[in-house]
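EI: anyone free to look at a 322-residue chain?
SC: sure, send it
EI:
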Amino acid sequence: MSIDFRTRAAEVIRIEAAAIEQLSQYLDTNFNLACQLIFDSKGKIIVTGMGKSGHIGSKIAATLASTGTPAFFVHPGEASHGDLGMLSKDDIVIAISNSGETGEVLTIIPVIKRLGIKLIAMTGNPNSTLAKLADAHLCVKVEQEACPLGLAPTASTTATLVMGDALAVALLDARGFSADDFALSHPGGSLGRKLLLRLEDIMHSGELMPVVAKTATIKDALLEISKKGLGMTAIIDEHGKMAGVFTDGDLRRILDQRYDIHSSLIAEVMTARCITATAQQLAAEALQIMQQKKVNGLIIVDADGKPVGAMNMHDLLRAGVL
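SC: here you go
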């Protein structure tokens, strides 16, 4: 018997997409209140939930923590056996339960209230016990689960995850959280390299930087390009400031123009208005500039306009940015 797996999969995606689409109607004053409570908090955000809600809660806590809101996940069962000792009066608890009646979660609510800790609930039932006990309730109600039995949490967990992302990103924006801030909590892997690496870390400088004077001949410039191996050379004026650049592409452009490479000056054929960068710029930013301008390399200049380094796409590739 042939089973059409794709038809069922497409139906799952349709149901979950509809669940997400419906979430916008729940972005009411409670959402604003939840954001404000977290934004004003001087403590940590503790996320808790049981079962699948717990798995989603763990991800929400991780997203909050990586976007400027200190947060961690506490299992409600462990919380009942000592982990509530992690809480302080300045903290905020986000409790997740689709039904709003999860026993393990409700058990710890009296302690949270006794400590005077603000409670944000995420449930699919605004009339549930958890929702009514909360200082702010984020509704994540869905019309139906993607599971044909209506039993396995599917659309509801997706909706909860998206609501958590909405909360985290709204707070990120309110805090003015920057790429540099993000990099501090993501130093590892390719993401860390993209966010932390600056041009001064990868540029060729000193004797490795290709540079000739504007009084040099085209031949001199070609020899410098070949020697330094970056496919280009900086051209400087009599004050040592950037006057232009000459690249492999420029060489191809002038081949049919009958220049005598032995006697013609590089200043005659260089690109005067060239794109430059600074040593403090992020490598990821330089990559974006190079892609937009369709160039394969950049000359790095200092505050006085003097070239201090050079880099190309191969340097970005070696650094793991590309």
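EI: The longest helix spans residues 155-175.
SC: 👍
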